[in-house]
Amino acid sequence: MVSIKDIASAAKVSISTVSYALNGSDRITKETADRIQSIANELGYVPNRAARMLKKRETMLVGVFLTDFSGHFYGDLLFGLKEELNRRDYDLIVCSGRRSHRMIPERAFDGAIILDATFADEELLGYADRGHKLVVLDRELEHANVNQVLLDNKAGATLAVEHLLGQGLSRICAVGGPESAFDARQRMRAVRQAVERAPEASLEELPGAFDKASGYAAGPRIAEAAREGPVGVFCLNDEMAIGLCDYLRTQTSLQIGRDVHVVGYDNIELAQYMQPRLATIDYSKRKWGALAAEQLLKMIEGEARGAGADLRTVG
Amino acid sequence: MVSIKDIASAAKVSISTVSYALNGSDRITKETADRIQSIANELGYVPNRAARMLKKRETMLVGVFLTDFSGHFYGDLLFGLKEELNRRDYDLIVCSGRRSHRMIPERAFDGAIILDATFADEELLGYADRGHKLVVLDRELEHANVNQVLLDNKAGATLAVEHLLGQGLSRICAVGGPESAFDARQRMRAVRQAVERAPEASLEELPGAFDKASGYAAGPRIAEAAREGPVGVFCLNDEMAIGLCDYLRTQTSLQIGRDVHVVGYDNIELAQYMQPRLATIDYSKRKWGALAAEQLLKMIEGEARGAGADLRTVG
DNA sequence: ACTATCCGTAGAAACGTTTCGATAAACCGT
DNA sequence: ACGGTTTATCGAAACGTTTCTACGGATAGT
Q1: What structural domains does chain B harbor?
Q2: Mind telling me how many Å the CA of B241 is from chain A's nearest CA?
Q3: What is the mean pLDDT, run by run of 10 residues, along chain B of 315 residues?
Q4: DSSP, res B36
Q5: 20 to 30 A Cα–Cα from B299, which one of A219, A269, B184, B245?
């Protein structure tokens, strides 16, 4: 593999000159710089990322951690993230699985974005304590090295319940999320408040885990409730709503939109292709991603500047 | 950040001893090794990935390149990939976008898996020429450093057409893929052959680009054809099939499954949630991913062994 | 013309590992 | 007790960069 050294000997200059030239330093005359540049191109030189990482102590890489690659949820989010990072000359890397967590302490990137239930809060705090920069998505975590990008879960869940109440439904079911999920707790709290505010509305809470299976599992209880008249169901995310619809359609003769009104949350791509189209709470995932990137870069570059890279002893 | 050096001085041994101990070499006595190990744990030592990459000239990382993160297609594939790689102690990294291509020549990973239309064949061959190991998914590319993992597109497409013919449909439409896509060409060729084999079947080919929009765009022509009796449509992938169904449902009164029979390809997750469920050609994406991983590792590790890592002059 | 200043380039150290070869101590058999 | 072998540890070089400091030559000022 051709290295800076090869260019140096080909151009009959020192390796430092090559380095300066290739990085566009004005210490080098334009002519030598151009000459070196073209020799580098000729030889097909590409800088070695590992060496640069090691020396500069920065990677220009940001990792995003997802619970899994199933992906329905993440397309737009990742798009937003990537765009914003690329604008600032960073690259995005997507990771999943417990194994890959170690890339954080190994300094494989300059910062990480966490949307991954396999990270415990304590684990994240541990990384933050050691100086790693993190952004957590829709999770509560207080630390100088952690930024949070939260959704307005309260507003969204309230909207969902009011949508159901507005259709004249007074018997509301809510299918919840895992106890550990911050956003699930926020949404459910808002549901309770919204139902309480309505004079004669009633609420039944059903357990869930944010996956299709739990929506399906909630089916029987909801079908039973629907025997006594139309019922409004708010599933705390779309996956569960889809699971529920699946149950209702295949295992009962209840009609969605008449006997049972379902509303989900997140507006995943699948939602719009359901028949009938699933009612859901939408928010801009792209913007969410861009915001997360911005928060992370603020921490990364903020420190780089703050550390006084340009301090020099004078006189 | 704590380095091997810190451990060395804490343990009052040389850094080489620490390195050997931490890597489980039998040059070091068990007692010292244990002592060093526990000191490392105490100090919270984590090896620096960049340094190790630089020195060992390997990353234990594999990159997979996708056209975009939209994701419907990739969940299971990535799962299969990741599982297989993890079994062999490699980590998986997902990348997208032209910018990130450069990570290949920069040696950011030991090999890459390409399922990304933004790579031109020549670009890939260029990398391969420089010694980078690649696996291309459903793409034809001959090179010593490139392995291909192909799908049996011919069998799948034949199955799809025969499914339609078997339902008594004799007027077949096929919505194609981009001209540059190898799998699209293979599928379309099989379609033609299958139709020709059927005595009185006719085929109409419509252009497409593997996205929902092109399925939608094919709608008017298909609706027109359906006025003269039921027609069978094979969309060369599910995305287009879904786009077509969307058109038929919203813009016409034709009934899917009666006036128009649609079959797709890939069995993406969305397919099973369509109403009615989309007929499609299924294959194991998980297995596909595992196979790709295996092919790549064979090249990577094959070379490592072949290069005689264990050759030693004796006598 | 002689020193002071500046400018372009070179030299060398450092980043954190791995690993080859060397070295000193301990062991063995006779 | 002595050479020879083994054993545990150490020293140093190397991976490919970046970047601080040094240096020599040209230019400019008086």
Answers
A1: 4-47 (no CATH), 57-151+287-306 (3.40.50.2300), 153-282 (3.40.50.2300)
A2: 12
A3: 95 96 93 95 97 97 92 82 96 96 97 95 97 95 95 94 95 94 94 94 96 95 95 96 94 95 91 87 93 96 49 27
A4: H
A5: B184
